């Protein structure tokens, strides 16, 4: 009985989490229905074992592969055991017809007509969310009838995924895209193994925004699944992305125990390509003062810091060199990375922009400001991930008087006195709207000062160690 309540509670929490990121970008989500089993499974180990047994036989690309000599039958396998994603493989030569998003096995078959094996799947790791998955193009894998002939021959495997769904929201770009891509690449390929990215919904702005990262994953040009009309041959194919859950990389599920430290090293290499270009950090920035990045939200989005100017003044007085950072979709990631990579502390209110905490150097200070009723969402994003990334994670939970909700609601109401209980009793989109969109923040500067001073001490210590 109690267990079940807890489970129910968890489901609600994770569901709320999902909502938060929709609210952030004001996606219309009236379509959402409550769903179960959102928490990701822990069955990736099984998958890893499967890959070990079946090493895809593609280590030796030959200039003109002769498929009929392939010693083992080419098989199609789909692992659908995970809560958040499906993953399918073709372990031998295959031809892709992009016009119908279909991969055909080539050469020696394990199925002969009329018993063709056909699998259909959607390569996006939010399987539980049927509304999102409706917008993801379905991929077919089939062992027959025989596919078309090759127009473009790649002597490397394909890795196929969709950049659709929520892509465009900075949090989702990483949570549903770049991080799962990193995990998948490290689960399937060896370090120096080449592969081609085959991407659905690879819109120009997205490819440009993430070009440094995509090119670091693979130097081969991207195959655009949606408008390419040539057939492409690969030595094998993996379709789908592995996710380890919300903002998570679980080293226990990766062959070489990669962590967020490896992920960050990957980012650093990717953005290190720009060495020699004009450094975005102003040359007159102080050598003595630790740099603080204050993440700003603006407009009618909720969770805006109303006394930001005073907060900036306060932080300066305490000793920080303060920069206000207000990322937009146009913000160059290389610039953002370089700026954050040289920062000693970041402070921001819970929201998608805090995904930039991924760019902080381990050991630097990351303070998440938690508005009323945002306790759970802040824990999952970005509290847990911040700690896992090795940041000096701090949390500033605002008091009732620091929330603009006191101007609207009775300060003795459950809504203000115990938001968690209130949400538990009366859960709805409207209620979450109150906490996420109606609420702005006015810091109690006396109280916040103590936190900032603490952050300053930590940042200064970090600066003296790491520069
Ligand atoms: C396919 O679409 C992408 C993205 O919109 C575009 O950059 C590319 O030029 C298109 N390719 C062809 C062959 O139309
Ligand atoms: C990030 O900072 C470190 C020093 O802390 C530096 O070695 C590295 O080159 C920086 N990365 C980029 C991409 O600028
Ligand atoms: C650098 O100097 C200019 C002009 O004095 C000033 O406006 C700017 O804020 C300074 N930049 C930093 C990061 O301190
Ligand atoms: C639940 O919330 C709705 C508004 O979203 C409100 O009308 C209703 O009175 C609330 N019920 C309780 C028990 O608080």
TrEMBL record:
Residues 263-366 form the Glycosyltransferase 61 catalytic domain. This is Glycosyltransferase 61 catalytic domain-containing protein. It is found in: Golgi apparatus membrane. Keywords: Glycoprotein, Glycosyltransferase, Membrane, Transferase, Transmembrane, Transmembrane helix. Residues 56-73 have a biased composition (Low complexity). Residues 56-75 are annotated as: Disordered. InterPro entries: Glyco_transf_61_cat, Glycosyltransferase_61. PANTHER family: GLYCOSYLTRANSFERASE (PTHR20961:SF98). It is a single-pass type II membrane protein. GO terms for cellular component: Golgi membrane.
């Amino acid at each position: 009985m109690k267990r079940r309540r807890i489970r129910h509670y968890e489901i609600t929490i994770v569901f709320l989490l999902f909502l938060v990121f929709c609210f952030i970008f004001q996606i219309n989500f009236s379509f959402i229905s409550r769903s179960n089993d959102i928490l990701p499974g822990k069955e990736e180990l099984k998958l890893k074992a499967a890959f070990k047994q079946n090493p895809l036989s593609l280590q030796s690309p030959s200039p003109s592969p002769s498929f009929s000599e392939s010693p083992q039958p080419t098989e199609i396998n789909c692992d659908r055991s995970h809560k958040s994603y499906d993953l399918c493989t073709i372990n031998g030569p295959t031809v892709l017809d992009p016009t119908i998003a279909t991969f055909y096995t080539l050469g020696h078959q394990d199925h002969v007509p009329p018993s063709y094996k056909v699998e259909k799947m959607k390569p996006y790791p939010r399987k539980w969310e049927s509304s999102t998955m409706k917008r993801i193009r379905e991929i077919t894998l089939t062992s027959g009838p025989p596919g078309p002939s090759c127009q473009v021959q790649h002597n490397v495997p394909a890795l196929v995924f969709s950049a659709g769904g929520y892509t465009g929201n900075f949090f989702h770009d990483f949570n549903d895209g770049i991080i799962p891509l990193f995990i998948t690449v490290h689960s399937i390929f060896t370090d120096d193994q080449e592969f081609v990215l085959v991407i659905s919904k690879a819109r120009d702005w997205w490819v440009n925004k993430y070009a440094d990262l995509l090119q670091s994953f693979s130097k081969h040009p991207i195959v655009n699944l949606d408008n390419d009309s040539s057939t492409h041959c690969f030595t094998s194919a993996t379709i789908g992305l592995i996710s380890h859950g919300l903002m998570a990389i679980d080293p226990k599920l990766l062959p070489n125990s990669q962590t967020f430290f490896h992920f960050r090293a990957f980012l650093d290499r990717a953005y290190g390509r720009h060495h020699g270009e004009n450094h975005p950090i102003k040359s007159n920035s102080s050598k003595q003062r630790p740099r603080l990045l204050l993440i700003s939200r603006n407009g009618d989005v909720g969770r805006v810091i109303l006394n930001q100017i005073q907060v900036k003044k306060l932080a300066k007085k305490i000793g920080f060199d303060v920069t206000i950072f207000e990322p937009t979709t146009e913000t160059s990631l290389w610039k953002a990375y370089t700026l954050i990579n040289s920062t000693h502390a970041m402070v921001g209110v819970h929201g998608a922009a805090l995904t930039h905490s991924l760019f902080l150097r381990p050991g630097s200070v990351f303070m998440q400001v938690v508005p009323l009723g945002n306790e759970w969402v802040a824990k999952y994003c970005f509290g847990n991930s911040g700690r896992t990334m090795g940041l000096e994670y701090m949390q500033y939970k605002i008091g009732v008087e620091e929330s603009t909700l006191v101007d609207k609601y009775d300060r003795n109401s459950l809504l203000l006195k115990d938001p968690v209980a209130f949400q538990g009793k009366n859960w709805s989109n409207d209620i979450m709207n109150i906490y996420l969109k109606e609420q702005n923040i006015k810091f109690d500067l006396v109280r916040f000062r103590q936190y900032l001073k603490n952050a300053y001490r930590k940042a200064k210590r970090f600066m003296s160690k790491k520069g």
